[in-house]
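re: that complex we talked abt at group meeting.

here r the seqs, copy pasted straight from the sheet so there may be weird spacing, ignore it
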Amino acid sequence: MTKNTCLPLKGTDYVEFYVGNAKQAAHYYQSAFGFQPVAYAGLETGLKDRTSYVLRQDKITFVLTAALHPDSPIAQHHLKHGDGVKVIALWVDDAVQVYNEAVARGATSYQEPQILEDKDGKVVSAGVYTYGETVHLFIQRSEYHGAFLPGFIPWQPSYQPANTGLLFVDHIVGNVNWNEMDKVAEYYRTVFGFDQLISFDDKDISTEYTALKSKVMANDNFMVKFPINEPAHGLKKSQIEEFLDFYIGPGSQHVAMATDNIAITIAHLRANGVEFLDVPDSYYDTVKMRVGEIAEDIELMKKLRILIDRDDEGYLLQLFTKPVQDRPTFFFEIIQRRGAKSFGKGNFKALFESIELEQSKRGTL
Ligand code: FE2
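got the structure back, here u go
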């Protein structure tokens, strides 16, 4: 394999969040987002230091893990960062080969290859660090037939909420420190063989007050897309800076989840109590001029406060939740693509004004 060949990644396997209370977080992901219970591991399965709940909606798998003891590295992580993404697991055919190649190209090892086995088969996993304390685990699961991973037992509570139409992870964004975006983008280029899809700078993404820079890195099949943001100078504090202040360093800013009917999904999520960023009325005064004809009813989009943007290949509809934990750090994006391969650059200004409104309420602008 030559230096810049893309590592063979088949897609996102799962995202693991370290949280303060996995049992309660799992209920939130069920009742608010419509995730289905899948698997569990904890004291009852022989673990001493942690408990994990696995939830799934179509191709999106989330693991919620909390520490059971203050000495656990999970407890340390949570004390420092609050609730947040620890593991972005990537699905591969050969975890040992991908791990060895990644380390040979300069990645820092997080976990040497391990074989996990139970009565349902075996999984090979290995991992490397990315930005901050966030890690990528490579998961090879072709010989496994259990609910999630060896060691987990099926979790089948009587409460089985309706799903909300979320289908797969579209992209996962990382926020990194001042002047680190190029370094992290280069890491994805040299270690993973990713290419840069798009870049924005502070001229594209700024309001009167706040600004950021962004580069979008993607693998060869576009199944794995990682935009990387860094703060840029504005009159007041950038939302990326606010994240860095409260997460205490770089980390995952948002996971974008795709739907094929955003109106139904957003209506459902709103009814379940999910909070979204406010979009000013004025946004819809100019949206038709900006995006032209779309298949959706603009009035319905306005009612649900869904954002719309167009690029050369089509358009997309998207909306962002407010942070989903106490710290103003991680949030979700809901996205429906109608041909567009971009990330909603045209919405950034409208959106930032909304984020600034939230920041000023928190006194962090
Ligand atoms: Fe996004």
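couple things i noticed - The chain has two domains: 9-154, 166-362. The chain has a mean pLDDT of 92.
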